[in-house]
Amino acid sequence: MKHFLAVSDLSSAEVQELLDISVKFKEEYFKKGNAPYFKGKVLGMIFQKPSLRTRVSFDMAMRHCGGDALYLSPNEIGLGKRESIADIARVLSGYVHALMARTFDHNHVLELAKWSEIPVINGLSDYNHPCQAIGDALTIQEKFGKAKGLNVAYVGDGNNVTVSLLHVCSKLGWNFTIASPEGYDITPKAIEIANEISKETGSKFNFLRDPHEAVKGANVIYTDTWTSMGQEEEAAKREKVFPPYQVNAKLVGEADKDAIIMHCLPAHRNHELTDDVADGPQSVIFPQAHNRLHAQKAVLARLFGVA
Ligand code: CP
Ligand code: NVA
User: Ligand 2 atom closest to Cα of 231?
Assistant: First the structure.
């Protein structure tokens, strides 16, 4: 693994390996604290958008393992504005040991990786969110084990989080159903990639409009914001389109009775997810957020060559 840019870049075995390493890091962390696997290493963190989970979990992942992290705000480095991405990548390659970047344009993460002499991690772009997907798969696996054929239902906007979730499900042999309104579908490119992966793993997909049909028999119901970062000017329009896709008690009642409720967070409560569901017995949204920490330790360990 040279960079970590998309779940679809990894083989199924590599995805499962990352999950197994995550479990080891998590167990060790809670037993006696992690050993200093990343001693002397610094992660540079480039953010073009806000973040709570990604920023703090990467910073803590480095510190727990004896390393350090450096936050670089949008205004400080002016990715592609104050300086070209190619130059930034080559300069930082001499200062830090890996880069994590959250960009608007997916091509900007690819450009960083192209020029960087050190590993680059995609911390969310407009196309995908692979770090989220590994943490999510860890959460699903903790609940249901490694069995193939689980039914994951995503309800809402076919966005960056959806793409990585679809791809991680494809890699692990889980079935994926999405219900999204017309005009807010997952990209054809992402579907094509998933179809290719499923030839090996046997995952089945359903791309629907009706959220009620989508959650039938679901083991997991997943949702995300109706308006992603960078789409703020569409927010009013989206608020009109998406209400039928709200994950509320009625919709949850139509899924498997043991279904878990997931959201990458930040949640817009009582928009895409109602309070009673977010804080109800089936919700795993906080353990899911916490698993980002353990999953990212695994990603870093693979990129640093220490696992
Ligand atoms: N889920 C997630 O990536 O959260 P942040 O935007 O807070 O990092
Ligand atoms: N789809 C959301 C995810 C945030 C973690 C966004 O891009 O804003």
Answer: 8
